[in-house]
Amino acid sequence: MVLVMLAALAATLLAPSIWTAPARAAQEIAATAPAVDAAKAADLVKAIDAADKAVKANQSKKAIEELRTARQLAGQIAQAAGVTMAQMPICNANCPILSDKVDPKVTTRMHKGQRVGFCCSDCLGSWDKLSEKEKDAKLSEAENK
Prior knowledge:
This protein is mainly α. It has helices spanning about 1-10, 20-30, 40-55, 60-80, 120-130, 130-145, and strands at about 110, 115.
């Protein structure tokens, strides 16, 4: 049950319906998952609340930043709860290497608690050679396309 709820949160962080009660959704998951690190759960609630406020204030860059933080925390919580990588949603629509559409049949990689998808297997090797900072930049660029 907890695994399903955590996977559902990770899959819906960017869905419009999450804005109807953003903090409540994260609090419900935290309340039903005692094994989850309470500090991470609290940070997740804070990030979702901050994103909600930024959206309401038309601060899209701040909202995106907070959603990325929330997505990372949700991924870390899911991993800690035993959700396998295959159960986690792919966090990006575009390949971080070539910016083409992600092919869900291609092998993925984990990066900061998120499952990263690629357009082809050739991009995996390029991704693996990048530093953490370069991976962050490439993923950010791909999300903004």
